[in-house]
Write a structure and sequence with these properties.
nucleotide-binding, Uridine Diphospho-n-acetylenolpyruvylglucosamine Reductase, domain 3, Rossmann fold, TilS/TtcA_N, 16% strand, six-stranded mixed beta sheet, alpha/beta, cytoplasm, 2 domains, tRNA(Ile)-lysidine synthase
Length: 331
């Protein structure tokens, strides 16, 4: 059934429909916050939230983070807030200090998410809405593939996630970037074009401007959609694995002095994929650290290729075999 009303632009209708779908799951009377950069994606999201939220007895607000990384950033943030205000949203601008840990992209992202989390918590918001599109998802999958980071990174971004207790919702993950631009144009909204989004120093920009167009030209159209489908399928697989781990782990794990231990026999009896996930899960849940694939495989050798080798130093812990148990102890 076509939900468009006569005269309603198709792009506006598509964005509104996507936003309505996620807002329906939020209790009436709640507040939702739109993370508004001022770009076309987040501006289209803000406009749709401003239209759909009141119909569901929800209050919508926006937060714009000024990273102060380029000249005119304060003016751009203020303009985004004015646009949100004109849409009927309660708009705020938060300025952050960006460090240098992990590189400029990661540092800016960390500062932005901290600010958004604090704003959402301060407002008692039921959810934080992010404007990531299908194109962002495709770029994320390609970057993960290039880094060889495994299936976890190829899952891309989840439509529903959590940031320290605050639900993160990405309503536009099935919507193309061209659609959000068209929605803004149809609504008379003027998005901000962030110069960083065209700066080839950033890997994501190179993927967007160079890699994806080449793939489309050489392999045919639909590459972005195929990458997004791959992410969704891998996420489904990961959820199934997580359920298997939850069912298995209580029976094979015991607390040990200064750490935790896992049954070697039980690990050996499981397929390699599940064994490796259990090892990573134990380290992540007990010591809040992530293992690389090479580290995971080295630990797995204590189970499958035991020849008396000594302890293995890992991030935050040390793994060793003791009799029929694989022990992980704090370093």
């Amino acid at each position: 059934m076509d939900e468009r009303r006569p005269g309603l632009d198709p792009a506006v209708a598509e964005v509104r429909r996507a936003v309505r779908g996620v807002l329906r799951g939020i209790p009436a009377g709640s507040t939702v916050i739109v993370a508004l950069s001022g770009g076309a994606d987040s501006l289209a999201l803000a406009a749709a939230a401003a239209f759909e939220a009141p119909k569901l007895d929800l209050r919508a607000a926006s937060v714009t983070v000024d990273h102060d990384l380029q000249e005119g950033s304060a003016d751009a943030a203020a303009a985004a807030a004015r646009s949100a205000g004109a849409l009927g949203l309660d708009a705020r601008v938060v300025r952050v200090d960006v460090g240098d840990a992990g590189g400029p992209e990661a540092a800016a992202r960390d500062a932005r998410y901290r600010a958004l989390h604090d704003a959402a918590r301060g407002a008692g918001a039921a959810a934080l809405l992010l404007g990531h599109t299908l194109d962002d998802q495709a770029e994320t999958v390609l970057l993960g593939l290039a880094r060889g980071a495994g299936a976890a990174s190829l899952q891309g971004m989840a439509e529903v996630a959590e940031l320290d207790g605050i639900p993160l919702l990405r309503p536009l993950l099935a919507v193309r970037r061209a659609t959000t631009r068209a929605a803004c144009a149809a609504a008379g909204l003027v998005p901000w074009n962030d110069p960083h989004n065209a700066d080839p120093r950033f890997a994501r920009v190179r993927v967007r401007e160079r890699v994806l167009p080449v793939l489309e030209a050489e392999l045919g159209p639909g590459i972005a959609e195929a990458l997004a489908r791959t992410a969704a399928q891998l996420r489904e697989d990961a959820e199934a694995f997580d359920e298997m781990i939850d069912e298995t782990i209580e029976d094979i794990v015991e607390h040990a002095e200064a750490g935790i231990s896992v049954s070697v026999a039980a690990l050996a009896a499981n397929p390699a994929a599940l064994r490796h996930r259990i090892i990573r899960h134990v380290v992540a849940s007990e010591f809040h650290e992530s293992l690389t694939r090479s580290q995971t495989l080295e630990v797995a050798r204590l189970v499958t290729d035991w020849s008396g080798q000594g302890p293995i130093d890992l991030p935050g812990c040390r793994a060793r075999r003791s009799g029929g148990r694989l022990e992980f102890v704090a370093r």
